[in-house]
Write a structure and sequence with these properties.
The chain is α+β, with helices and mostly antiparallel strands. Helix content is about 15%, strand content about 40%. The protein has helices at about 15-25, 60-80, 85-90, 90-100, 110-120, 125-135, 225-230, and strands spanning about 35, 40-45, 50-55, 100-105, 105, 165-175, 180-195, 200-205, 215-220, 230-235, 240-250, 260-265, 270-280, 290-295, 300-310, 315, 320-330, 335-345, 355-365, 375-380, 385-400. Strand 16 and strand 17 (about 320-330) form a beta hairpin. It starts with 13 loop residues before the first helix and ends with a strand.
Length: about 400
């Protein structure tokens, strides 16, 4: 799928991207900016799809990258998910959205509220009606918020139930060495909101320990001067779902590692090897660690594994050499284990190093940094909304070296 704005660029420009893609072993190794003789290719990888922007002049790469991420978020907002089949199914709406989001190569309407007034989200009844009448999803009128000083919020919003929900989500990126010491650790956090409030409310959100937040980025609705002066988020919220802020905490002293993994992997001369893994909670403040999954990319010499898990189940793909152990929930005081043998090619040499372990997990009602919402106040409207805050800690790029 391709979309051109200023001029038609030949599809052969993508060959530069495909050449780089063939040379790398992992999708993460593709450089985000690829320079060609006359263009720059700036790409992101999300939802198992590559989104590539072709730029003819020098421009800030982060500007283009942010726009590509906004395109993906818009597709997810409209279609619930962003997959190859979904995009093909809604071909027309995808092109209509791209036409509105970029005007002659410059970002124009990127706010979800504005776009939904311009182009109606698809549903079964509207699709049938459009098929019969030959109409499109494009609105005949200009969005009410497009020309106001709060373009992210439409006017005349009404709800019978007024509610505001905030999700504080933290992802832990870490590298743990073979002895269990932390080589690198940082937290990527964000506050996602679902706000359904009548009228034009003005909200203030305060934190118990805002000093933790020194590297932050905000939605355009946040009044930045108020944050700098008082460390309080003051904003007129968009209607519906949006990301209020993102933050980064890089001090290793603050980052508590919520899991420990004991490992013993050995490959012997001949045709056998041994593996023993043990996982347990650590610094979780009594919370359960859920959806724990351990993955290992075995060396090419491994033919099969025969393992016995004390909890959960394991799978091994002989083609990709990936061993995955779905542990599930790890409760305080319990240490699930996985033991067994590794079958290798008898003629092949021993691997130079043991494979690293990639860990995934979620911990509900916990933020590793200790960030907590203090209070939420509303001004400008007289009703009392229902308010809720949820905390989640997840694994980002969490790797244990063996």
């Amino acid at each position: 799928m391709e979309k051109h704005w200023k001029s038609v660029i030949p599809r052969s420009i993508c060959d530069y991207f495909f050449d780089v893609q063939r040379k790398v072993s992992s999708k993460d190794d593709i450089p985000p900016v690829i320079a060609t003789p006359h263009h720059y290719l700036i790409s992101i990888y999300r939802c198992q799809l590559y989104f590539v922007a072709v730029v003819m002049t020098e421009v800030s790469p982060l500007f283009v990258t942010e726009f590509l991420h906004r395109v993906v978020e818009t597709f997810i907002d409209y279609f619930s998910e962003c997959t190859e089949s979904i995009l093909k199914e809604h071909y027309v709406i995808v092109y209509e959205l791209l036409d509105e989001m970029l005007d002659n190569g410059f970002p124009l309407a990127t706010e979800s509220n504005v776009l939904k007034e311009l182009i109606k989200p698809p549903n079964i009844l509207r699709t049938i009606a459009n098929t019969v009448t030959g109409k499109s999803n494009v609105s005949d009128t200009l969005p009410t918020g497009q020309l106001s000083n709060v373009p992210w919020r439409r006017t005349g919003v009404k709800y019978t139930n007024n509610e505001a929900y905030f999700d504080v989500i933290e992802e832990v990126d870490a590298i743990i060495d073979r002895n269990g010491a932390t080589v690198f650790a940082e937290i990527q956090g964000y506050v996602d909101c679902c706000v359904k409030l009548t009228g034009m409310p003005d909200l203030t959100l305060s934190f118990m320990n805002p000093r933790l937040l020194d590297d932050v980025s905000f939605h355009p609705c946040v009044r930045f001067k108020r944050w700098e002066a008082e460390r309080v988020l003051s904003f007129v919220p968009p209607d519906g779902n949006f990301r209020l802020m993102s933050y980064h905490i890089g001090s290793q002293g603050i980052v508590a590692i919520p899991l420990y993994i004991k490992h013993n992997i050995s490959f012997r001369e001949g045709s056998a090897g041994r593996m023993e893994l043990q996982v347990g909670p650590k610094q979780t403040m009594g919370k359960h660690v859920e959806n724990v999954v351990l993955e290992m990319m075995m060396p090419k010499c491994v033919l099969n594994v025969s393992l016995n898990p004390s909890q959960g189940k394991y799978t091994f793909d002989p083609h990709s050499k990936t061993m995955s152990w779905e542990v599930g929930k790890v409760e305080p005081g319990k240490t699930p284990s996985l033991k067994g043998s590794i079958t290798t090619l008898s003629s092949s040499p021993l691997p130079d190093a043991n494979p690293p372990i990639t860990v995934n997990f979620t911990i509900p009602q916990l933020t590793v940094s200790g960030l907590k919402v203090n209070r939420l106040d509303m001004y400008g409207e007289k009703y009392k909304p229902f308010k809720g805050v949820k905390y989640i800690t997840k694994a980002g790029r969490f790797q244990v070296r063996t």
